[in-house]
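Kindly inspect the following:
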Amino acid sequence: MLDTVIRNGILVFPEGDVRADLAVSDGRIAALLKPGEEAPSREVIDAGGLRVLPGLIDAHMHVQAPFQGVTPQLTFHQQSVCAAFAGVTTFMDFTNTWRGTWVPDALDERVQEMAESMVDYGVHGKFVEAGREYERQVRELADKGCPTFKLFMTYRKEGVMADDMTLIKIFRAAAQNGCMPMVHAEGNAIAETNVDRCIAQNRLTWRDFAASKPVLCEAEAFARAVALAEYAAAPLLVVHTTNGRCLDIARKAQARGQRLLVETCPSYLTLFDTLYDDPENGHLAVCSPPLRTPRERDEIWQGIQDGVITLVGSDDCSFTRREKEAGLLRDASGALVPDFTKVVNGVAGLELRFVLLHTEGVATGRISLNQLVGLCSTNVARASGCWPRKGSLLPGADADIVLFDPDEEWTVSAANQHNGIGYCLHEGYRARGRVKTTILRGRTIMENNEITGSRGQGEYIRRKL
């Protein structure tokens, strides 16, 4: 006897829709059944009027990661609650790595920290140097189910920037061990020079922050990373891409056969640099790269439609207002004294990622729901090395399933988000589409806006590219 049969839904694959009932047994998808086909089961879920999606995957977030002197209060369990409301059944974070860190040990520590999660989880390594026995470290990471790792091309003063020699060495080691590096592409020389000039001239508003990291700052690093990856014969993923100038570089690289993946984030599709003009709240939108203009937004949508961008991660790095303001002062009137150099970078994104893209992309006709499932699930699983176990509705895959209502309309507010930061940059946004049920390995963890899963229910997912 089957455990569960999901009936009357429309199954959504990147390749197209299928009218079928979905059979689940022992935490896996057992079969796709003809609609109404007899199949004895312990439970029947009626998905009439809903779309049945593979569990969503967010492979880009930062939780409990010390940065700029601040460690955010958000826990992995709390983030997994946000994930369940968002239809995310697997998420991935990064090792906390500093100079001298043995990255495989940092991986083990991160896996332990994430064990409180209610959803399944993976870990990316992070390299800041090609230190002692770095090639062995890359091999050990791969053996531990971590074939992906990140390098920052900026933040020299924070001690996490990887220089070009490090990039080449880690890229080459990745290529030799079946791994894929990813980069945060912002040119440190441009960014740091601009910030130093802003400090010298006392230009420290939130708008000055955005100006210190212009499109060229990102595009220069993007081009350099692509060139170094080509030299090292390594695949490459560039994360949180914000503009068409970078996409032009990517198009040329992809056209000549280079293995280059490009990711963007919902913040660059729905939020703009005008938020930096608000003296009391603009600091809440400080993130890197900074928010851009509607012109760049349109360029990014074009990149998604063209298939240059195949992944959307949230880059969720949530901070409370208190954490954002920890280094700031207020004047005698109580107004914030602007100093963008004292504001920790990061915005929320995990819980709203899919619904924002559905509202702005599917509901407006820019992309199909099938494409969106690819961007937020199947393509992510393939790129990170957990497909077909994850990101699939085919028999044998984990029964990670989302029931989604594409027509429900609702208003986004801090009050209906679950990260506890106390504000929402999308406050008042009218969203279309809502996750109704989230199922992890055959067990319902969220249903009708109520959590039914439990702390520690998630499992560490070993991955291989």
About this structure: The longest strand covers residues 401-411. The chain has a mean pLDDT of 97. Residues 95 and 110 are 6 Å apart (CA to CA).
